[in-house]
Amino acid sequence: MERNLTLLTDLYELTMMQGYFINQNNNRRVIFEVFFRKNPFGNGYSIACGLQQAIDYINNLSFSEGDISYLKSTGLFRDDFLKHLSEFRFTGDIYAVPEGTVVFPREPLVKIIAPIDQAQLMESALLNIINHQSLIATKAARVVYAAGKAPVMEFGLRRAQGPDAGIYGARAAVIAGCSGTSNVLAGKMFNIPTLGTHAHSWIMSFPTEYEAFKAYADLYPDSCTLLVDTYDTLHSGVPNAIKVFREMKDKGHTLTNYGIRLDSGDLAYLTKKARAMLDEAGFTDAVISASGDLDEYLIQSLYAQDAPIGAWGIGTKMITASDQPSFGGVYKIAAIERPEGGFEPKIKISENSAKITNPGDKKTLRVYDKEGKVFADLIALFDEEYDESRPLELFSPVDTWKSTTLDPGSYRLRSLLVPIFKDGKCIYESPSTFEIRDYCKKEMDTLWDESKRLVNPHDVYIDLSHPLFEMKQELLRAHRESIKK
Fold this sequence. Notes:
Layout: H1 11-22, E1 29-36, E2 46-47, H2 51-59, H3 65-73, H4 79-86, E3 93-96, E4 102-103, E5 110-115, H5 116-147, E6 152-154, H6 163-175, E7 180-181, H7 184-190, H8 200-204, H9 209-219, E8 224-227, H10 233-250, E9 258-262, H11 267-280, E10 287-290, H12 296-304, E11 311-314, H13 316-319, E12 329-337, E13 343-345, E14 362-368, E15 374-381, E16 392-395, E17 403-406, E18 412-415, E19 418-422, E20 425-426, H14 433-445, H15 449-452, E21 461-464, H16 466-484
Parallel strand pairs: 6-7, 6-11, 8-9, 9-10, 10-11, 15-21
Antiparallel strand pairs: 1-5, 1-12, 2-4, 3-5, 3-19, 12-13, 14-15, 14-18, 16-17, 19-20
Helix pairs in contact: 1-5, 2-5, 3-4, 5-6, 5-12, 9-10, 10-11
């Protein structure tokens, strides 16, 4: 989608850019990383999402005449800097994990290698794009997991925080496993299925519920799901639906994609009663769909009560990630190019140990066991070499006495970061939304069930290589020594 979001940034990114422009010695190449510190929702994993929109953003990075005029009107920027902005283009390299990848805290999702003024400008927009879609994809993955084999439809547009949240949230939800969306524009933009039935207003616009059902069935005989809770689910809605289904069958329609939807009431009780009524009438294959402020916990609860629900429409709580509406991704500098060449590692230090960054130019290696399940992730320096024919030692960077050694043949490695941009040119072809969805499903299959459970999941080990661990400790020691002086 062609859209220039260059000014989608925080003001201090631009004021720092002007500072780098004036102090050219400081405008060296740097390495920035996007990562997050904690899985949302108390989850055991997260789903990386939003890379395609990040690529579109970078491909369209340029300051228009209107942008320059606006910035000049603020009185904050020099004319020579504004002229520099009018010629701005991204010239750096970018690596990222593919969309749909299962990811864990503290490992790089996106790595930017570029002059610091370019990398600085991109911070706010990249975080906005990656944070939002990764959050919704992770929430949707939980909902889809709770739903089991039953399809989940994304119904959240009217409750999303604005058009973009509805559009790109729908995309993220489908990537994480939803079968489609009610959002027609998202369907058009990303070539994903659009799904839906009718509203209570359709029923209320007819003299009777039966007439409303009959008119809808006449319009869509091959896709007829009737909303049965407008007046009285069990005494009116379901009986009228059964009457219409009988008439459709008598007319020779093959009922293959049909059923009822409930949006309110005691869904466990009502769906069990409705199922019995449908079965008694001979419509044993009619699907019962449920919607109405549902989330993964309510889905699990309804299944625990043996609710015979065969499809789910999930809106507000998924599209807004209502129990944690922020992903928490951050954008931190990891290294600065030395005048003589090579990169000098940089570390952010904090009294909060969780906010101390991992320095240097890094990569993430995923360690799989013999069953193809994720055993651990190893964050290592970019130039480290590993050989699967050799033993692999892993240790906790927190409790360093906890370690294990994997024998050759008992594991395999995969590097997660792939090249996206080289010298400012995109060299990566993004898959279609459904191709990413298929890839995400395979990624989810690499997790043990213990890591996918909704409450108190098993934490996948995130380890540092020995060289990276020692580099980090050396920088911390140097900081302590500098304070003493």
